[in-house]
Amino acid sequence: MSSTLTPPRRPGTAAAPVSAPGPHGSTAGGVSAAGVASAATGRSAASLSADTRSRAKNHRRRQTAADVMQLLCVTSVAASIALYLAYAGVADFSSLQGTINAVGIMAGLAGTDLILVMLVLAARVPWIDRTVGQDRAIALHRALGKPALYLILAHGLLLTISYAMLDQIDVVGETLSLLSNSTELLLAYLGLGLLVLVVVTSIVAVRRRFAYEAWHLIHLLSYAAVLVALPHQLSTGGVLAEGTLQRVYWIALYVAAFGLIVVYRFALPIIRSARHGLRVTSVETIAPGVVSIVMSGTKLETLRVQGGQYAVWRFWSANTWWHAHPISFSAVPTANAIRITVRDLGAGSARISRVPVGTSVSIEGPYGVFTDRARTSPYLSVVTAGIGITPVRAMLEHASLRAGEASVLLRASDENGQYLWQEVAGISVSTGSSAFSMMGHRPAGTDTWMSESALRSGVTLETVFPHLHDSDLYICGPQAWADLVVQDARRAGLAEKQIHLERFDS
Ligand SMILES: Cc1cc2nc3c(=O)[nH]c(=O)nc-3n(C[C@H](O)[C@H](O)[C@H](O)COP(=O)(O)OP(=O)(O)OC[C@H]3O[C@@H](n4cnc5c(N)ncnc54)[C@H](O)[C@@H]3O)c2cc1C
């Protein structure tokens, strides 16, 4: 366990003493927590309950929107099947060949519908981001990948079998005949091949073998896969016959999916980047391998960044223009300046750390729900480690906190991991929050997020955060470490809505 933290003061920042308390409010190593104001002295019971009611209302609103979103996904697949059945009727099921054919068509429709839903989920639509957060939307996008592929594979296989039964030839002969006689089907098979490539390269174990940029490039082929399969739906499929509601439905779905992608992934970021004219004004090393990059621009207040959010950045220098990275705002932007803090965890972030002053920067975002707005409880507890401090620093700065409302535990293995600590300490002092530190390596062979000495002293989440059960717990740090904090929070009885985890892997 660390002793009192007294980081070097910077002009304009106050350093709060930071320590970690032991069990039952005692302090480990004789260190007392400072910068703490009692919650009872900080706010009235009436204002606390008004805040709690408004947070509960916000949470219900977001939950309803998330439910509507899931319902729309399911309804959309159900609609594609229902519309097919409405037009084809039950006659198609009167023979074995007809049944195989009809099931094959429905599998294709459901699979295509799922793929279009996946494209919408990845289109970075602001409503989706505000409702469930981009990370949950992408998690759902990923979860749908394999079912969509299996449905499309079943579609190809079942229809080839059904055609082979009609033509009374074997499946291989039927496949060759389909490929040689129809350009639309040839394109559809090409689309299927691309889809297999996209899904296989997205399986975690395979994905890790590729550089992110290579994987991302392959992933973009999914747009091509959907588009090259379209002609066979219009011609061979018959399900999109002119003048039917089914045709209107599918065209609307295609236009919505691709329209949202064009608007939110391409047009809006280009317009936004041109409007704000961001340029790098300074790159300052704040710890070994960690830099803070300040950018200047115009009308940055119109980005309406919430502390805790991130954006996807592209630096237009010779060494960095081809890769964009999600990086959190490490301070709340002003009208003409933005700051991010980057740790060189890989080749791309190392190149960003050396970006020349004057480099022009594109911005996509802001995104994310790791903000004060997502809170559901009267108190705020935060655990952060390493570069995970960046969104925490900005979130604490943005939140209007009353004395005693927030407690922050800063975790590091050694002194090199203390970047931005003095700024967080300064914010704690000015808001009357508590800030504690826990330094030291984790004990070998134990699944814990705590230091060896903290573990030995009996420190738990409850001892660090006396109001834990009335708190939202915000966690950001290395993934495996953060998962262990989440595990402890669940064990302590926190509800899922109280746990907010920002993932830095994607
Ligand atoms: C929401 C969010 C906020 C983040 N905030 C910060 C921050 O404030 N400071 C900071 O230093 N880091 C932050 N990161 C992490 C940062 O984006 C990665 O460290 C960086 O992209 C790694 O790229 P690399 O080429 O250096 O490493 P690589 O070795 O290529 O990749 C390391 C990991 O980063 C992922 N990654 C790489 N490139 C991208 C990309 N373009 N888009 C998405 N994921 C990618 C890879 O999947 C891999 O898991 C954040 C990540 C996310 C998702």
Automatic annotation (TrEMBL):
Tell me the ranges covered by the FAD-binding FR-type domain, including all copies: 273-373
Keyword hit for Iron: yes
Keywords from UniProt, A to Z, are: 2Fe-2S, FAD, Flavoprotein, Iron, Iron-sulfur, Membrane, Metal-binding, Oxidoreductase, Transmembrane, Transmembrane helix
Q: Report any Pfam family annotated for this entry.
A: Ferric_reduct
Cofactor or coenzyme needed = FAD
Chain residue ranges for the region called Disordered: 1-33
Kindly list the residue ranges recorded as spanning the membrane: 68-90, 102-127, 148-166, 186-205, 217-235, 247-267
For this protein, the record's InterPro entries field holds: FAD-bd_FR_type, Fe3_Rdtase_TM_dom, FNR_nucleotide-bd, MRET, Riboflavin_synthase-like_b-brl
Q: How does it sit in the membrane?
A: Multi-pass membrane protein
**Entry's localization field:** Membrane
* Keyword Nucleotidyltransferase part of the UniProt annotation: no
User: What is this protein's name?
Assistant: Ferric reductase
Give the organism, scientific name.
Subtercola frigoramans
